[in-house]
## 1
Amino acid sequence: MNQNQPSNHELFIKAHKRHHFLVGFYRIMLFVVFLILWEYSARAELIDSFFFSSPSGILACIYRLASEENLLFHISTTLFETTVSFLLVMLISLLTASLLWYSDYFSEVLEPYLVILNSLPKSALAPLLIVWLGTGTKTIIIAGISVAVFGSIISVFTSFKQTDKDKIMLMETLGGNKGDVFFKLILPSSLPQLISIAKVNIGLALVGVIIGEFLAARRGLGYLIIYGSQVFKLDMVISSILILCIIAFGFYKIIQFFEHGHKKKNHAPS
Amino acid sequence: MSKNILSLRHVAYSYHTTQGETLALKDISFDIKQGEFVALVGPSGCGKTTLLSLIFGLLTPQSGNIILPHKEDGAGNSIGYMLQRDHLFPWRTIYQNAILGLEIQKKLTPATKAYVEHLLEEYELSDFSDKYPDQLSGGMKQRAALIRTLALNPDILLLDEPFSALDYQTRLNVSDDICKRIRKAGKTVILITHDLSEAISLSDRILVLSKRPSTIKYELQIDLDDAHRHPVRSRTTRQFGEYFNILWEELQNESEPAK
Ligand SMILES: Nc1ncnc2c1ncn2[C@@H]1O[C@H](COP(=O)(O)OP(=O)(O)OP(=O)(O)O)[C@@H](O)[C@H]1O
Ligand SMILES: [Mg+2]
């Protein structure tokens, strides 16, 4: 019996590892097949490589951009603007949601305004922002914030509000005031939701920053995309979009890293 | 004869909502003596939880008085309130949960920490103090929640159906075990329960509440010797059946529709 158990477990572990390996393998295969088909279609002139480019064309374009057009500078500009927007969105929504949570009056009065601001198409704001603030980094960052911030406030506030009323009562039976309730109960119990909200926000901040760069920038990946399309260098557009994909994936991974850290801490196996 | 540690005089309380007023408690008066173990029974929704919240001070009576006489040394008697569910925080270990009250009241000292460790030991949880609540059984969680309340060393304990989340077997053992320890520590206890045998076997006195708007309808003094203060053994005594019938009759009258 004792000999059976570990071997069963070993089988389970083996199957589990195999599963992970296969998923990873197929993921990469899918990408490689896609690249090969793309390259082949372009060379065989099944697709027009002027419009659709090709993997080798993109590599060459990225190399050229990096050596001649200061690609790294554009990438770091977009990265910087997105990171700042994201951090400010998180900060603003945490602070505002805390205030809304603290005062029922405040939240009841402000609720319809938040809903309206959130349902507004934010790209419609961008031209206005440019007129008000000019075409600097500040404008881009604010464009990034404006896309994410209202929805984020609503989501954070909702997650604060979902906290079990009985747990709040428990805090009161232990002599806790509103501050204790907030820091020892509301914040820690909303942490998983805050992480998912962060995932959404980082994507939205990136969208906002690119919209901003479309309209008001002389640098950044959004600018490269717009510039490329204006001068019909579609290689440049597609390369920039690919780099954006990689950036979005990188951000996602960073937040996932925090998420795993949080889960590990909470459910430490003994 | 020990003296009163808590007195209620004509306490009334109603809840107000936009739909109207719910008079929960009409006229409640009773005294609790130092070291007494009192059980509170009554039909569902009659206001038992409301009564504990009033005594603890989460709610303020609409009329009447709740009197907590001071101790000889002049300090007030402190109250510990244990809710129906354990409400342990899943992101804190058992130890961190146990010290939550001390942490909130800024009373974390080497002495209080040692006291919590002593309690964990006494309630056989010291091996689990670094575990998280979801790694514990229901009975263990209930004990951890009790330690969280006891850590503040209250003179009066208010227990709102503390065992109702447990299965019957565990409930018999845990209730017996916990109540013995609390008695030994000389605490004054008010226990809400729906289980008449639990009330009889654990308490010195039972207060029966009428249905809403409620008053104290009946008071029953329980005389069982210590050997028979046990949820199972108490049933073998002659008095048990008598007490049970009296309580049953009183509550039965309450649940019949009013004419
Ligand atoms: N927050 C509230 N607002 C309005 N009415 C309430 C509120 N809390 C309780 N009540 C009402 O007051 C009455 C007493 O409630 P309470 O919770 O004290 O009853 P209980 O005796 O503890 O019931 P149970 O045995 O089911 O736990 C009930 O009729 C309930 O509907
Ligand atoms: Mg109740």
Note: The CA atoms of residues 70 and 258 of chain A lie 32 Å apart.
## 2
Amino acid sequence: MTATASLKRTFVVALAGNPNSGKTTIFNALTGLRQKVANYPGVTVEKKTGKTRLNDGTMVDLIDLPGTYSLISRSPDESIAMQVLRGLLPDTPAPDAVICVVDASNLQRNLYLVSQLMELGRPLVIALNMVDIARRRGLHLSSERLSRALGVPVVPIVGYKHQGIDQLKQALLQAKIPPLPAFPLPEPMTRAIHELAEVLKEPNAHALAERLLTHDDAPDLKPYFQDRSIRHRVESIQNRLVEQKIDPIQADIEAHYRWIEQVSAQAVEPACETLEAIDNRPQSPAGPSNVQPVQVGFAPRISLTDRLDKVLLHKVWGMLVFSTVMAGLFIAIFILADPLMGATEEAIANLGSLLTDRLPDGPVKDLWTDGIVAGVGGVMVFVPQIAMLFLFLAILEDSGYLARAAFLMDRVLGRVGLNGKSFIPLLSSFACAIPGIMATRTIENRKDRLATIFIAPFMSCSARLPVYGLLIGTFFAAYSPWVRGGIMFACYGLGVLAAVVTALVFHKTFMKTVPSSFVLELPSYKIPQIGQIVRVMATSTWAFIRRAGTIIFCLSVILWAMAYYPRLSPEQQEAITKQVAAELPPSIQQEAIDQETESRLAAAQLEQSISGRIGHFIEPVIRPLGYDWKMGVGLIASFAAREVFVSQMGIIYAAGDTEEDVASLEQAMLVDRYPDGSPVWTAPVAISLLVWFVLAMQCISTTAIVRRETGSWSWAIGQILYMNALAYVVALLVYQITSHLMR
Amino acid sequence: MNSKSFERSDHARSGDKADGSGYGPLSCLDVGRCAYVVSIEPHADRDLKRRLLEMGFCNGASVECIRRAPLGDPIEFKLRGYNLSLRSDQARYVKVTAIR
Ligand SMILES: Nc1nc2c(ncn2[C@@H]2O[C@H](COP(=O)(O)OP(=O)(O)OP(=O)(O)O)[C@@H](O)[C@H]2O)c(=O)[nH]1
Ligand SMILES: [Mg+2]
């Protein structure tokens, strides 16, 4: 294999390893890319590729994989890793070599995957990562000793400091197919494997026989199970083993672990053997009768993680801290970002007028002020808030707290038919439902996963934030930032409530199944790295800005054109002017007449524009919710992207505004009147709109991801129908009730 | 493997407290106590059994119960030098001998 691989120009190397062992950190160090790194298991859920050049000039295609505990996968993300490693994915070449990233502070469990990779028959290199943590914990591993025990090159690495990366590249050049370890299997099991291997007559028949006997369900084994004679043979051998009181799965895994215990004992530096004897003491091999009751702790000292967890996972304090963190997250976004937003708004206005003053009157100037500044600028105002949200999420993600939150929430989420592992996807959905839905790949149970995907868009994403900000900022401006923060929090809360109720309904009706499993590793806490946090925040915020600069920009131009054309003909203009003059008493000053004429003209222009016509067409449908045609146009536009609602309001009110010194969108909205003189925008309207935006499913990209992740259109379409129907009904009720109460 | 590891223990089935005299389910291990794993109950779901074994709950491994979540479930354990949480519904399938 090495021989053929070195003949090829590019060499494909897969990065495998347990979740949270630092694969992506090493991938980034090798390729110079910036894939997402965070301190919880299950960050990477897709294969990502990059390139790196080895010391002899060979180009390598590097594949970063989702973490997996085993080559027998249980969740969709693990399945991707398994299929790439076994070379089963049609779009990915089988790797020529594998780098297995091993967390040195958690050696034994990490070596389990290594033991399986050694049977895979591909050249293997071990990247012994996080040696800094291991050392801090008093574990002195020797990479040479480990390498000797395994028969595989082992490179000690501190991933985030880029230590050992060069040596890893060097080792890759010498990667060889590892020797098959001698797992101490029970005698009948060894015989069974031999027996089956003989029937199979294939080059790697032993490993294959072991997989067949231990119920491996990987797709490459399907042909063997379809072959009647092989299937019967496998089943009869399995039955025989069970009669001999041997469970093939248990016997196999326990033999791997027995081998691992030997290897890890050999990997310890001799000087530290006495200390390490506690951790890596070969464990009693025999059955329960030989078990000696010795009370020993595993950790040599009480670590910071243990001390922090005493508080953070405490029955009372833990819940208190959790609620504070969650509530604080959202209120802080609103309050801390408030002053920044004012500054941004001003900056955008100044920037806009810079060009406005130089442009000649006409459609180009109108496009700039009423289309681009009003549309894109309106959304950009919210960048500080969104950056703040991303900052808090990045800190939480890198601290190690998220796995704890999942632990704390498992029972609560279990009650409504979800899973502690739904927590991280749902929390990520507050930034955007798309990564949130992708993150559900770590959920093993399909029912839990589908329920999580279904409710994820109820979490208020960052695209809704500008809409909430505009509406709350306009209608509750008189209140203190705390009240506004509270209302904002209530919007988020309503989404969560809808999600919980929906999940509960699912759970109690058609998705009732067996209780699902929850096996979650709790990683050590880490002090979040400032550089990394800032990078994550910057990339996410930049994505939002880019979106404003591209999609929102294009949509703003289109929406502007739709609100601008077709123009009134001169005859129409004349008719309106005459009408105004006739209507107003002659005693009035000329100035007032001009002003009235101008605003009538603008209104008429807007009404006859494409947007105006569409808006009036759908007005009957949205009238019961308290919306006028302008909001209707905004709602339609927001199906392209939610924040476009803000752009659309900006564009419509800029177009309809006659005064040059437009104070602000908020003021324009507040003074808008129906022909009968009643205000268009009232508190009930704002609340009803907020409810609509909290609950409605308006994001096409999310729908595409739901379709892909669930594998069926019915889920995606069901979600749209359900969420929008719910949004309509609740917004209707809220408007009708509040407007009656406030009358 | 050792044939004894497949004998069912009545303690495990009845969900009794693991006491010094015999075997019990891991879910009943008191907080702060250590125990040795004896086996995974043979009637456990195959995927669950495999996952528990892969995570290191093998015959002879020592496990410590660190804490229960505020609502009683899931439970955090320490084994092989790392921390793992399981629901008690799953920990029930791990048969252990309590240490003192
Ligand atoms: N102390 C220390 N931390 C590290 C080291 N390498 C990575 N980390 C941290 O470990 C955490 C996990 O790193 P990732 O690279 O996201 O791990 P991963 O294996 O890609 O994780 P998944 O994608 O979830 O499987 C991050 O918080 C890293 O900053 C290291 O050598 N030492
Ligand atoms: Mg990763």
Note: The two ends of chain A are 81 Å apart (CA to CA).
